[in-house]
Amino acid sequence: MVTTPEVTPALLEVLDGTVDLHCHSGPSPFPRRFDHVDASHDGARINMRGILVKSHHHNTVMDVLAMKKLLDQAPTPVFGGVALNSEVGGINPSATALAINMGGRCVWGPTVSAKQHICAHSHGDGFPSAAGELYEKEVSIYDGSGDVSEDTHLVLQLVADAGIMLTGGHLDGAAMKDFFQVAHAKGVRRMLLHHPDYIVNVAGTDIDEMVALGVFVEHDLAMYHPDVAAVGWPISQLVDWIRKVGPEHTVINSDLGQEGNPLPVDAYLYVVQQLLDSGIAAADVRQMICHNTAYLLGLEEKP
């Protein structure tokens, strides 16, 4: 186990107001270390401003509303959304409208049901389930003729009208570009590309095109914390990404909450200190973990 760095006033000042857009607290059919209420209390250790809780399998707005009495007494605001996987009917305007109308702040493109994800985990690695077979089916943004489907167009219009965040989920690069191009044309402005070098493996030229549309590029603490055995990349890789894309287009989230992994706040403490020690300016770190994330969640206007 890695020793958490000394929690200095300087480090806490950098982390103050962090917004985590990728928290995998429970409930979930996958093993989780804590629930959404626990996540709120964990976030208070660094005075988090907000947490977006994500499930691959269900609408987390329902969770947040069901836990409302407890969350009202918890220190960090928690928000939910819906991922468009087969468990909610895939690219489903009805599921999207339900999540939005009940206060959802995010619509995730297909993740575990995306062809790219299915191919990446065809041997069953990386996504253990405590619930057995979930009978997931592949979900596509295209219709039978290869065009972006009418349901995808409607989903993206609903997101645009609500002014909330859209992510590309685990779509491949070509599909994600089509997804974001249609979204941009409809007026979606809060857009996020997840971990480009994990599962989705998006090419640099595709990333440049998406950034030009206003898409933010996400990197996750889970990939860079040594106690997360699944990946374990060196901090230099994250530093290179930040310098290539720029902190103004970059978002850093936890992607944590899984059983056996560090708590999100412990990962923020560790990885942020590593970034500072690697020469990334404190103001740039705050741009990526506080301001860009707050904009995407609808807590601030564009930085």
UniProtKB/TrEMBL annotation:
Pfam families, per database record: DUF6282 (PF19799)
Database matches in InterPro entries: DUF6282, Metal_Hydrolase
Protein name per Swiss-Prot or TrEMBL: Amidohydrolase family protein
